Fold this protein.
Amino acid sequence: MAGPTIVVVEDENSLRTDMVEYLSGCGFEAIGARDGAELDRMLEMHNAAIVILDVNLPDEDGFKIAARLRDGHDAGIIMVTARGSTVDRVVGLEIGADAYLVKPVELRELEAQVKSLLRRLNERAAESAAPPVNGAAPGADALADGDEARWSLDPTEWSLTNPAGVRISLTSMEMKLTSLLAALARKPATRDQISQALYNRRWNPEDRSIDTVVGRLRHKVEGAIGGPAPLKSVHGVGYVFSAPIRVVGTPQA
């Protein structure tokens, strides 16, 4: 029985074939796609666990595709590209890629990255599905303003604190984003609302700066709490902070 489905998005036929054949030999259900449009068709037919994504693709580059995937799909993303500058790596990871490999990549290294990412994805899924211990909600010792555990946003300290008391320092942009999401009380913020809050301008679909801020905040929160962040993408809309959150303190004038 085939293992998890992996889609390899690469416009170079020989390289795509090599990666698909190698991963298939490792026990995965590996399939290839030449571009973003073909990837979309594959994702409609298959429940992909991981997308391996080139950056330099025809019609739509890999950064834009990664941003789309983070908006509407839970698949892990491994970028494999010849663009190895620090700026490209940072952009890829902040958009939401889970790993970034520079060509030429050893297929054994690719296999190791796939297996490592699958372990992390399985751990996240297990944590999300785990029942509360003794019927108690996570962070039950930090319940406030009702019967739900709440996150706290402090504008005076530029910090976000989870129900268990883990405090996360925020940058100016992260503070603006979190303040907007907190004000919407678990309703999704559109990309245009986020662009207005962060930059005082309408959203341009060609602009990846929103995804950069969201990706940076998501990774920061997940690194601090050791689990999935409640900052979720809403397909076709924008982003939402899915946990209850309250604003404490009074911002400085």
Notes: Residues 107-129 form the longest helix (23 residues). Confidence is low (pLDDT under 50) at residues 128-147. Helices lie at 13-25, 36-45, 62-72, 86-95, 107-129, 172-183, 191-199, 209-225.
